């Protein structure tokens, strides 16, 4: 019978320091294990280790196998392989509990897959996270540093798409947002990040990526997202503009499918699609709640005369035709309180007065809701804002 030990360390949190601390704890525990295999389960439904085991370890296991997965979930790891991989890992995750998925070997022949009665409790989360992990894993360079830039990339002299990201104090989430951009199936993009006077390590975090498609701007005084987005817009070289918040992320095909939608609909000013709605928790990080169709939401709003709370929901994702965005003057250059809320609803409302959006029928964006965000803290101001600007 194959001998294995059970890891007792459990993941906690979504912050960069949470994932780093979890890696250190797991590394320490694995380094003291003398058995050939370890059972490492990060399923958040397990109330305590040993209370429930998802599978019986198969017999025999071929010598070349380093990880055994049950329904796509990595559970059993060969100790001698896991130790050096853990020691090298230094990346960004949506939450600490996704660490095992980021360590899966690139060679599928090293993984033994076992299928049984599937557990659907977290399949949406895994389906939306794993593709980004598999494409955007760090590559160790000859000088010992980590590079996120794929070796075969040819940097475009003129990108088709400019992805704009305005951040303020987002050091714990912006790394995962950037990873999702690096995982795009379309290479012809640039990422412009504007740091709006963060007083944490956000600027240092975004500067850590060695990819020449990423450009970073900063300003010494916090002036609000709208003003920063206009500054980024003035620097953008792409014919299309895609918004990305520093605590959200893109599906791998988001850039390609939204670009195609606008390419094939030259009369449209904006492309959108479906988005995943996630709720941030302190312990587990983002938890998937449901998928939303922004195209459907737009038509419901436009056909409704009555002001409602639902109309405070923005269209997500948003890829603009740059020329159309410039024609309406971009975002409102206001630094007052009303100028700092609902700026995304405002710009899309003005843009779509004479053109409906083209919608892609798939999940392209992932939005993380948390109570401390400026949009959530000011939801009660929507009626006031609407009467002021409309």
Mind explaining what this structure looks like?
The chain is of the alpha/beta class. The protein has 2 domains: 4-117, no CATH class; 156-389, Alpha-Beta Complex (Spore Coat Polysaccharide Biosynthesis Protein SpsA, Chain A), CATH 3.90.550.10. It has helices spanning 16-31, 79-88, 99-102, 123-135, 174-182, 202-206, 225-235, 254-263, 294-302, 322-327, 343-351, 374-377, 382-389; strands at residues 4-6, 37-39, 67-70, 73-78, 111-114, 139-140, 146-147, 161-167, 189-196, 214-219, 240-243, 249-250, 270-281, 285-293, 319-321, 358-369. The strands form 3 sheets. Strands 8, 9, 10, 11, 12, 13, 14, 15 and 16 form a 9-stranded mixed sheet that branches. Helix 1 (16-31) packs antiparallel against helix 2. The model is unreliable at 45-54, 139-152 and 303-310 (pLDDT under 50). Residues 162-325 form the Glycosyltransferase 2-like domain. Keywords: Transferase. InterPro entries: Glyco_trans_2-like, Glycosyltransf_2, Nucleotide-diphossugar_trans. Pfam families: Glycos_transf_2.
